[in-house]
Amino acid sequence: MGGADALKPGRRPPLARAQLPTDTASLARYLIGKTLVRKLPEGVVSGRIVETEAYVVGDAAGHAYRGMTRRNRSLFLEPGYAYVYLAYGSSHMLNVSSERTGIGAGVLIRALEPLDGIPIMQHNRGIGRLRDLARGPGRLTAALRIDRRLDGIDLCREGQLWLSGDDSEPGEIGESIRIGIAREAERLLRFYLRDSPFVSGPRSLNVR
């Protein structure tokens, strides 16, 4: 695991939009093992995605359920755009739009394994423990300094924030119910990298 100065241009190129599945649950699974990259004034930070949740078309737990609004319009873009919102007035959440243009759905990025720029992430979080830097959706946005200003950004283009990946297999992917929701809570739409110490949630959910 290197620092920000170890990340050279072109080392983590963005995913092509054509690589993204145009199905929300499939995209949530596909993103496990891919890399989220953030360019900051101090350097570049990145983390391997180890946990996601799908909020599919017609999902009562999703922000797109009641249709497009000024707040959620990024969810209705073609696959690969960022939807960022503030939860509970304190934590930002990063989602990836996931269906064809005009159809609202998305994938919540829940946890990262830190890769590049770890000292920057530690400074942003005010903690040193590697495991807890980006283990949870609010923690990862704080570590990468992601907020509403990045809402609507194209994650398939190198810029302030993008998705990257390679051809290697991420490992065994588990699935479970989603965390912290009341509606449609029984659906198995959470995906995670089995045996990763960077996955969030209770142990009882991380055994399937």
Molecular structure report:
With 208 residues, the protein is an alpha+beta fold. The protein has one domain (4-197): Methylpurine-DNA glycosylase (MPG) (3-methyladenine DNA Glycosylase, Chain A, Roll). The chain contains 3 helices and 8 strands, in the order H-E-E-E-E-E-H-H-E-E-E. Strands 1, 2, 3, 4, 5, 6, 7 and 8 form an 8-stranded antiparallel sheet that branches. The two termini are 28 Å apart. The model is unreliable at 1-6 (pLDDT under 50).
Show the helix and strand layout:
Elements: H1 24-30, E1 35-40, E2 43-55, E3 82-87, E4 91-97, E5 106-116, H2 118-125, H3 137-143, E6 161-164, E7 173-176, E8 190-193
Antiparallel strand pairs: 1-2, 1-6, 2-5, 2-8, 3-4, 4-5, 7-8
Beta-strand share of residues: 25-35%
CATH level 4 superfamily: Methylpurine-DNA glycosylase (MPG)
The chain-level mean pLDDT equals 92
CATH domain class name: Alpha Beta
The CATH topology name reads 3-methyladenine DNA Glycosylase, Chain A
Fraction of helical residues = 10-25%
Question: What's the architecture, going by CATH?
Answer: Roll
SS-derived structural category:
alpha+beta
Quickly count the domains. Answer: 1
Number of helices: 3
Outline, from the CA principal axes?
A: globular
The largest sheet is: 8 strands, antiparallel
